[in-house]
Amino acid sequence: MSVDLAHIRQVMAEADCLYNDAEVEAAIGRVAEAINGELAESNPVVFCVMNGGLIFAGKLLPKLNFPLELSYLHATRYRNETTGGELFWKAKPEISFIDRDVLIIDDILDEGHTLSAIIDFCRHAGARKVHTAVLIDKEHNRKASPDLKADYVGLSCIDRYIFGYGMDYKGYWRNAPGIYAVKGL
């Protein structure tokens, strides 16, 4: 598969910055404060959802001032595309969380099919309680279920195709230092 790097660069050059680096960092700090206030005594197992949750988790975890166990899982519907398809598990959790609180860290709550499947997986596998933290909650009425909400949300954003801070555009720009919306999408 050939990648048109000129197109990838053009997407960034034309993108609208919805939240700059300082705004995102402040939001991560607020999420950390809330999690510290609620989960500090629960001995949680924390799962970073790869690849999108990697940057958010990497920025968030050092701000959590309590002992926790960390692992990762990898489930996706996008597979470097711009629209979601069937859920695909690349790596299921390898650490036991039976009768433990679980905190799932992910980049975005869009429609929420992936996050819902992960929550259900953890509940059915014996988690005492499942908590979710997302950097971005996208505002629209297409959630997987009407009651689907993350427990901890950094920022909300309009219903556009976004990238940066872990979220990608066709596999690129996860490293963008802010939250950007693709022009026209």
From TrEMBL:
Phosphoribosyltransferase domain span: 18-169
Keyword Hydrolase: no
UniProt keyword Glycosyltransferase, yes or no: yes
Reaction catalyzed: GMP + diphosphate = guanine + 5-phospho-alpha-D-ribose 1-diphosphate; IMP + diphosphate = hypoxanthine + 5-phospho-alpha-D-ribose 1-diphosphate
Pfam families per UniProt: Pribosyltran (PF00156)
Annotated SUPFAM superfamilies: PRTase-like
Biological-process GO terms, alphabetical: GMP salvage; guanine salvage; hypoxanthine metabolic process; IMP salvage
InterPro entries, per the entry: HGPRT, PRTase-like, PRTase_dom
Cellular component annotations (GO), alphabetically ordered: cytosol
Protein name: Hypoxanthine phosphoribosyltransferase
Source taxon at top rank: Bacteria
Gene Ontology molecular function: hypoxanthine phosphoribosyltransferase activity; magnesium ion binding
Keywords: Glycosyltransferase, Transferase
